[in-house]
Structure of histidine kinase:
Amino acid sequence: MSEESRVPFETQPAALETVPAPLDSRPPREVSLFWRTFFLLAMLLLGCIIAWLQTFRALEFEPRALQSAQQLASLVNLTRAGLIHADSIARVSLVKTLADEEKVRIAPREPGDTYRLYNTDSLSRRISEQVKARLGPDTVVAREVNNTAGLWIGFSIDSDPYWLQTDPSRVELVAGITWLIWLGTAALLSLAGAALIARLINRPLKKLSFAASRVREGDFNASQLNETVATSEIRQVNIGFNRMAQRLSKIEQDRALMLAGISHDLRTPLARLRLETEMSVGDPQAREHMAADIEQVNAIIDKFLDYARPDHLEPERVSLNQVIDAAVFSLGSAPDVEVHTSIPADTVVMGDAVELHRVFSNLLENAQRYGREPESGRVRIEIAARKKDDWVLIKLRDHGTGVVPEMLAQLTQPFFRGDASRTSATGTGLGLAIVERAIARMGGRFALANSSTGGLAAHIKLPLAKP
């Protein structure tokens, strides 16, 4: 169903229920500006935290290992000196005092003792090396002796081996967990800050996107943006957008008013002209031709009025079955036209009954005019509908010759004709433009495609009415 005559196009068979990709396909996976900004800021902040942590560890690692080794060596030397210079009675008291007050336990080292070396990470290995360097190569630094965990240092007093057990916290072994806690806290605070910054950046763009969508739908009054925001760049964008929306609204009003006025003013002289033609022209054939020309001009005026209707309307529940039945009935009962419908019972969509009737009347009229089969000259029109998710998908197709693919995108342009000569055209070039405009006003989508089994198919996607 092109708006005007068609160019032959070969096709291959396909099922009637096939819905074209433009209406039935899902958009590709997208990432919003908010999340993209958030991820970039988060990666930047986390990278800075990791770099800072690595730098701090590199600067703090060696001093910490040396300090811890010095503390352990001093503890062993002081304990050894105390035990050497104390008598037997004072030695017992010294060992008890060290255990109670300093949490340092002295125990004999037996040949059968089992132990695990203190070498779990790079810091512990470095501390062990420094302790051995200060106390001697025969010194043993262990993290477990006879299945008892702790920080154990094996040393000798007059060739008698001993174990010194102390709390690992003396060398700040728990600092690794502390750093993890601080790192996690810094990461959470950084992510929260990144989310806040991304939201502040995204908020004016989100408002601009919403306003642009309202302008696209023709709702110019709901697209006003705040012109008093603090950010100068956003304020200038909002001011420019508001002025553009006001200008577009004025142009749209002037266009609708102009088309309506011209169409209305032409009806009166046309009515007089037809009356005078019927009364003054004596030749019946000439009178019939003149009356037909006047009817065609009147039909063109109707198309102008339809196209000039306001863009905004309030959708309501509409029975698709009743609308299509009424449009088919209005088509008449020409003997060479067949219309077959396959619509589920009680299919209700959100839209406008008058607009939908105008849509299907235009599509049926175009199919009747341009969808004749090349061989038989008959017109076979098929209308099918099915529900999918929250939508109703409708397909209206004929069995004519179709159109060349390059022309499909132009068929819904106002005043476009497939004929090279405008004088040979009998239509206005507005039929499919009116259809697309009406479907868009109802929140649906409209697309044309060559059917693989021959002819042209119109695909309509309308919102399904909730029960």
In short: The chain has three domains: 1-30+314-467, 34-177, 239-310. Confidence is low (pLDDT under 50) at residues 1-19, 419-425.
